Structures are given as C-alpha cells and as structure tokens.
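Support reply, case 0932

Customer input (verbatim):
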Amino acid sequence: MVLDETYDVIVVGGGHAGCEAAYCAAKMGSSVLLITMNMQSIAQMSCNPAMGGVAKGQIVREIDALGGGSGVITDKSMIQFRMLNKSKGPAMWSPRVQSDRMLFAQYWREQLEATHGLSMYQDMVSGLLVSDGTIHGVKTSLGLEFHAKTVILTSGTFMNGLIHVGDQNFGGGRAGERASTGITEELIQLGFEAGRMKTGTPPRIDGRSIDYNVMEEQPGDEHPGQFSFTGDNKLKKQRSCWITHTSQEVHDTLKKGFDRSPLFNGAIKGTGPRYCPSIEDKIDRFSEKSSHQIFVEPEGWSTVEVYVNGFSTSLPIEIQHEALRKVQGFKDAKFFRPGYAIEYDYFPPTQLKHTLETKLVSGLYFAGQINGTTGYEEAACQGLMAGVNAARKVKGETPFVLGRADAYIGVLIDDLITKGTEEPYRMFTSRAEYRLLLRQDNADIRLTALGYGIGLAGDARNKAVALKQAQILKGQKELDKSLSLDTINSLLKGKEEKLAKEKTKTNKLVARPGVYLKDFKESYQTHGWWSEEVIEQLEIDIKYGGYIARERDNVAKMKRLNDKEIPENFNYLKVKGLSYEGRDKLEMIRPATIAQAGRISGISQSDIHVLLVYMGR
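Our regenerated output:
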C-alpha cells in the first residue's frame, strides 16, 4: 500500500542527524517526511545530557552559522554554560553546555512541527525501494510504501542493535526501545560493506541519594555565553555539575565482574570508542592508575535524575551497584537504571561521496552513527549536510561541500570519506590542520554567507554578519592610529609595562602579551564598533596575526592541489608507476581531487607525483 504523494526527501530516524536533515531540507523548500520508530523519543539525548566540548562546540556553532537548528535548541534548553580551554589559545576555546534532556527533545519536536513542508510518521522502516541503481522510497514494518526522490538514513544505534548488561543481551536500539531490522541485509545485497561498532552508557542515579558535600563543585561560567549567533537566549541562572573520583577499592570491586563482562569474554564483537572507554576498559588499559575522575551531571531543571559521566559500563548490575556505592558521594546511591553497552551496524563511510550520498545508489544518503561516528554534534552536522545536498539534488542544483579549510564539518566529512574509520570517530581540534582559522568565535563570518546563499540562513542572520564585519573593519582602521603619548604611558605604567618613547599605534600595543583591547575601553567605548564580539575578533587578529597569515598561505597552497580534479571515471589501472597499495586504495575510494588522494592512508608522495605527471600529460 502506498501512502501520500511522492516526497522530495524521506528522512529515516528521529535522532540528532535526522532532526537536522529533516529541518534543513524542509527549510530549503523541499517536501520532507521524517519517519521514526517512536515519535515520543525524537531528539533524545541517549547518552550524556550535554552539547559541545572540545571541537564539538565548534561544530555546533558552525551548524548554527549555516542556519541549522541545534545551536538555537541547545541555548533554549541549557542549564549550564562553560567555555573550555580559555587558558589556551583561541583555536582551542570550545563552548560546552549542560542541557535539560526533556526540554531539548521537546523544543526539537516543536521546531519540527512548526517547519513548513515537514511531515512526520511513526513506523519502522524495514526496507528500501531501489531500482536501476536509484532510490525511490522506503517500506515499513506495517507493509506501507512511501515514495521519495531522495532518502536519508540516520539510524543511529538501532540497526540490528544488541544491548549487553553482564552476561545478558537482548535486541534494542537504546534502553526501552526495540532495534531496527531489515535495512542492513538489503544494503548488503545491493553491494554495500557493513560492520559492527559498540558504544555504552553509565547508570542513571536518583540525585536525592547522592551526597554532594563530599564532591568538588563545578559551576558554570560567571558570564555565560551561548551557541547561537542570534543571541536570543541568555542564561540567567545555572545548575552546577560535580566532580568525584573512583578509588582502588572501586576498581577491585569492578574487577570481580570482569569474567562476566561482555567486553572481555567475547560477547561484544563491535569496536568501541577509543576516547570514551567504559570504566572497566579504563581500569584494564590504565592499570597503573588507582583513580579516575567522575563527573556528576544533572539531567535538567526539574528532575532529580543524574548522569554519572565517566562510569560507562556493561558489567553485571550487582557489580555496578556495589562498585558505584564505593565512589565518594555515592554511598547510598539509588539506581534509576543500570549502565549498558550496545552493538549496532554501521557502513564504512568510504562508500560515500563528500555530499554523503552513497556511491552505489543514487539519491540515497547516510548521516550520523551509520557512518561510524560518535557524538550528537558529529551526527547533527552530517544530518545538515545530507539534508542540504538531498534538497539540492532534487532541485538539480550543484552539490554543497565544505572543505577542510572551511569548517570542522568539512574536516569530519573529508576524514570519513577519505580515510574511513574502524572505530567510532570523534572530532578533536588536532584533526583540523587549519584550526586557528576554524575557531568557534568566527563561525558566522566563515559560514553564514554560504548558508544564506543556499537558502538555509535567513536575511536577518546575513545582515547581522555583514554589520559585524563592517564594524570589525572600522575597528581595524581606528586601532591602526595612535593615541596621545600621555594616554599610552598612563595605561602602560598601570600595567607595569615598558613605557613608550613615542606615539605608537594601538594595534602594536595590543600585540604585546600583557596588553589587551579592554585596557583601551575609555578611549574607544564611544565608537560604534565597540562591542564584546567585535573586540574579541579584533584582539585575536592582532595577537595571532602572524600565525593566521601563515595558515592562510597554507590554505592557498592546498587549494591549488584541490583545484586539480580527478575525473570520476579515471582508470588508475592504466597509470604505470603507482604502488599496488596506492592503486587499490585509489580504485576503492576514487578521490575527487589530487589533494584528497594525498590524504588517503597508504598513498605515498611518489604515488601523488606519478598521478600529477600522468594527468599533466
């Protein structure tokens, strides 16, 4: 039975990737159907109730700058804001928010329902409608067919999901929800390669049973910021998180259950996240450490439920209970639910184009954990890019692709497509070679015009960024002038800095390590460009100007290689001189440019030289 008209885009899954994909595609004028197994769990924070963090915060700001929804929703539902790494350089500054789990899901649901052209339906998608290498829609477990010109799969941890708690295991996509079946088998029949990954989550605790007096308080920033550049949701009050630690006694207790751990006894086959290991994995890998940090995180304004960050585990319930009660502050802890591990299917992302469209099936896109990533932020940005490109494909428009010098989003997708991943991929600042250019503070300057150009960011956002850039330009001109010598030396003397012998331009003074733009507030605060976000940009440009210029030079050099496109049907077998490994990798991944080819693991510089010579001929 066929229901409804043919949609432009069908999005399968209502998690972070699915919400962004559906929202962005509809916002760009496409007719969209979001199909999810449970409409009551749209935009669930399945793991910790937080958004952002190191590199992840930059991604959320980029999503917002482009016109996506995650930044605005996060600001509306946050209960604490912290800017991480403020003691380091601006490339490392990373916003992080503690969220109200229930409000986050509620606001996303409301946003989707308020988006014109976006419909929703509750059912399990069990199959795909594919003919002649092109997607035409989906089939559901109730025997229905929905037709579409493009389909985006954002299945999260649900495809053949298997939950492990000690020596027990059962099917499920997350606690209390069934797994999704059928799609993996169809994709394999179509020629796709599949694999298994694993992730986990800690116990949830009744906060009334915790003794916070013996823990270290971790309050939010005194002057909290926000993710969205709209500036519409200022946080007036905050809830604290808390820090405690495990002990050798806790570790010894946990070890009693290692023989029944699915992580160690072979029950779990999938690869887990290297950078967010379970507590038993940490004890096993770092046996020399007698203590590990635990972050105690509230789940919202009006709930007593607490997330025990750092205590992810799939050990037997009685071991979890006994060990956690030996952690300082948890002596009388009452469980709401135990921790567990979950295995699920994923598809190596080297099978995708940079648009996140599959190479094998035209019009079929993958986004989120199906591509081997981990984290809400990584999933959401993939959803945005898949939604944008599906909408553009339907309209016959050119693909929208961000490069490694454009955004962390571009780094993430290029890493996935070019290198693939055999373990859950997580974004770090170290993955971005141009991280000084890809800061969280300038995401709007980098990306909003692009978002506006594709119909995702609105007029108000575009005008606000244009005004900000104009003010920055005015500020640069004013700071390139000198103040009176008396004014300069009065300021320097107060900071115990070496006095000036002649008038010096303000930007030269601010370049000194101990001098800051805020020191010149009395001289410039009446100027129209003086605002917190503008002086932040100006100061970064002054203090790190040399490094920024060097990175821009490197970008220009890399762009010359990126401009050298490799034809889609290029025959690498004809190129004599390529290494056997290089030829195999190039045939499998089929890079779009010489620069992308150079980033493939196993491709040597001699392979690149041979390619350049061959293409030059």
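We compared this against your earlier run and they match. Two observations from our side: The chain is about 35% helix and 15% strand. The radius of gyration is 26 Å. Please reopen the case if you see a mismatch on your end.
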